[in-house]
Design brief:
There is one protein chain. The chain is mainly α. The chain has one domain. Helix content is 81%, strand content 0%. It is globular. The termini are far apart. Its main location: membrane. It is a multi-pass membrane protein.
């Protein structure tokens, strides 16, 4: 029952959702600010990645971890989830093991795009609207 959201009161779940979500935003903004320091790419990559993880964790408090995992790996979210998780790991590998700053930045951008596409899957017709918008802009 520990992995079920119903073990916490609704107020507690909403409070922890807010805390994690705000922490995610703060980490992402802090990481972006640190990017401009001389060796800021490592801090940026770490804080930006932590921000995305915190944002993901925030929804666990609303729906529960098991329900969250099931939703993340539904067919309509599978590709975005895999790309997002892979980019989280590859971002950190880029800065700590491979020492490739450009690659880390690329993986952060891909994190953002995958997280956005993942998030849009929860809003009815949002992905269709984005596709239609880009289609009309490009052709």
């Amino acid at each position: 029952k520990v992995l079920d959201a119903s073990t916490l009161s609704f107020g507690t779940r909403v409070k922890w959702f807010g805390i994690c979500f705000v922490a995610g935003i703060v980490c992402s903004i802090l990481g972006t600010a640190l990017l401009w320091l001389p060796k800021g790419i490592k801090l940026f990559a770490v804080f930006y990645t932590l921000g995305n993880i915190a944002a993901l964790a925030s929804t666990c408090f609303l729906m529960g971890p098991l329900k969250q995992l099931k939703a993340m790996f539904e067919p309509k979210r599978l590709l975005a989830t895999v790309v997002m998780l892979l980019c989280l790991v590859l971002t950190l590998c880029s800065v700590f093991w491979w020492n490739k700053k450009g690659l880390a930045l690329l993986f952060c951008i891909l994190q953002f795009l995958a997280m956005t596409w993942y998030s849009l899957s929860y809003i009815p017709y949002a992905r269709d609207a984005v596709i239609k918008c880009f289609s009309s802009c490009l052709g």
